[in-house]
Amino acid sequence: MNDTTIKRLIALNRAFYETTADEFDQTRGKPWPGWRAVLPLLTPVVRVLDAGCGNGRFGRFLADESKATILYTGVDSSPRLLEHARRTLADLDAELLERDILCDPLPPGPFDLIALFGVLHHVPGAATRRDLIARLAERLAPGGVLFFSAWRFYEFERFRQRIVPWPADLTAEPGDYLLDWRRGERALRYCHYVDEAEHAALIAASGLREITTFCADGEGGQSNRYSLLRQEP
């Protein structure tokens, strides 16, 4: 995928979340069941990087469901979603940063847990996705865990019905789509379907040891494919 297309798709998704932030927050308040897989791996004090934190609900989940002391850093490019995150995490030791994890430097860390949820499908270009996973892995402390998910939207008819024609002036890779949003304001978002082969390539790009890969959430517990990966001490 060329740089011009990447920049336009990043801009499209930034505009999407600025348009839909309030509706998104209203429909994305509950934790995903798949997140529970990380709870047994948490140490008493956990330095967390939530990359693409949105409204902060993963930080809320950790605070409510774990017994660990959570030192939380959330990063997102949407000012409006970060406003929701500040309210969600008002009682936590939380640092919230307005940054684009594809264009701006990542926080240096090190971190004991790095989460990347609801993000990969918005990252344009296979090489860009592999690079993001590798850069996040570099921020892990020895023994730290990278926990990422890939949305399996193309497996479900109701999401395939939301696909709109791809613009003729943009390049595309297999699995690239534009989906419309049908709640509140109408908006378009770029989404990439990460299939099993690409998911395996992302694991390999991390250079980390795979603890487990599984599907959970949503329809039939199949909406997201997760991987838990560890940085060996």
| Overall geometry | globular
Distance between the termini: 36 Å
In which range does the helix fraction lie? 25-40%
Secondary structure tally: strands: 10
Topology:
Blueprint (H helix, E strand, L loop, with lengths): L2 H25 L17 E7 L5 H9 L3 E8 L2 H10 L5 E5 L12 E6 L9 H13 L1 E12 L5 H4 L2 E2 L11 E6 L5 E6 L3 H11 L2 E8 L7 E7 L3
Parallel strand pairs: 1-2, 1-4, 2-3, 4-5
Antiparallel strand pairs: 5-10, 6-7, 7-8, 9-10
What do these coordinates show?
This protein is α/β, with parallel strands linked by helices and 233 residues long. It has a single domain, classed as Rossmann fold (3-Layer(aba) Sandwich). Helix content is 31%, strand content 29%. It has six helices and ten strands. The protein has helices at 3-27, 57-65, 79-88, 126-138, 157-160, 196-206, and strands at 45-51, 69-76, 94-98, 111-116, 140-151, 163-164, 176-181, 187-192, 209-216, 224-230. The strands form two sheets. Strands 3-2-1-4-5-10-9 form a seven-stranded mixed β-sheet, sandwiched between helices. Strands 6-7-8 form a three-stranded antiparallel β-sheet. A hairpin with a 7-residue loop joins strand 9 and strand 10 (224-230). Helix 1 (3-27) packs parallel to helix 3 (79-88) and helix 4 (126-138) packs parallel to helix 6 (196-206). It is globular.
Summarize the structure.
The protein is α/β, with parallel strands linked by helices and 233 residues long. The chain has 6 helices and 10 strands. Helix content is 31%, strand content 29%.
Key features of this structure:
6 helices, 7-stranded mixed beta sheet, alpha/beta, single chain, globular, Rossmann fold
